[in-house]
Fold this protein.
Amino acid sequence: MKKIVFFVSAFIIILANPTSSNASDFIFMPRVMGGVETYNYEQEAPGGNTLEFSDTMPFIGCGVTVAKDSFYIDGYFMETETGSDSPYNWDVNFSRQNYSFSVGYHKEGSLGTYFVGYRSGKTEFETATEFDLTTSGWFVGGAIGNPYFSFNCAIAFLEGDATDEQDNVVGFTAGVKWKTPVKPITERLYFGLSIDYSLFSFENFTESTINYGASLSYVF
């Protein structure tokens, strides 16, 4: 959480001391975001039963987009607070962290955007013992829409590591985003809303998330 506080503070300092850049050179757009994430974990259990637990946790994050002509680079980091559940009277606490970097292409005047990138996620579990579930690897996807509303989806080819078990994972993500300039303040400041879904299927278990987020971004 200290990392997020640092980047949020830096974002506020940037807004308080804005600098301009030549639009023909590049666009620099930092952002902060927050919201809630619903996390769900399902695992096959002995006897044909299913071990399932879930919770909805607040999250906070930050990111930045740099664009020039038809190309852009984007990166973000987010983490959740700790969630908890008690399946079969078995207490489990969990929290998540994600980061992602991508390179994209968007031709001016078109509705489509194409991107490729790398993402990594970690879910930390605390029961009688502590263990981590990590996924990392490459993804490719696209988006369709306009500067204010868009739909995106991607396929991820990841390597999963759950304590002593490793597995190749095919993941799927999809989302919708809306943003608008905060005109009473400045047309460079944007407010956005988003809903994002992800699903990662391992050999014996799956994890999925639904994020409901809000963001503030500033265009230089």
